[in-house]
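Posting for a labmate who doesn't have an account.
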Amino acid sequence: MAKIATQENILKGLREQGHRVTKIRREIVGMLEDTKVPLAAPEILEVLKKKKLDANKTTVYRELEFLVEQNIAQEVEFGDKKKRYEISDKHHHHVVCVECKQVEDVDLQADLDGVEKKIAKQKGYKIINHSLEFFGLCANCK
């Protein structure tokens, strides 16, 4: 239930800002909200085609770019130069199996807040964002 409310709130917010909510946009937001792992554009396109929605590669990339610009989605990359997307609901990190490619969320934000502030102070930076992913072998692959 909460996921549907979140998707509805996202779409409502877009409408209130004067943006259109097309079938494709609605489906992409729903997919990103429902998935447990970040999705790549080709995966999203494949699902849209299975649902018989008239989407092409350019449309999917344009929609993902729009959702990132609106701070609804965020890009993540696991060292393979393949962009994946997920809802920007809370900052978190991932652990990725290098063998089977399984991805799981890891919540470290509370532990890293102090480290981030220390780095910013020491280096004189205003930290905008950071990315930290862990790679290894999952329980099934080790």
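Reply:
Got it, the structure tokens are right above this. The chain has two domains: 2-87, 93-136.
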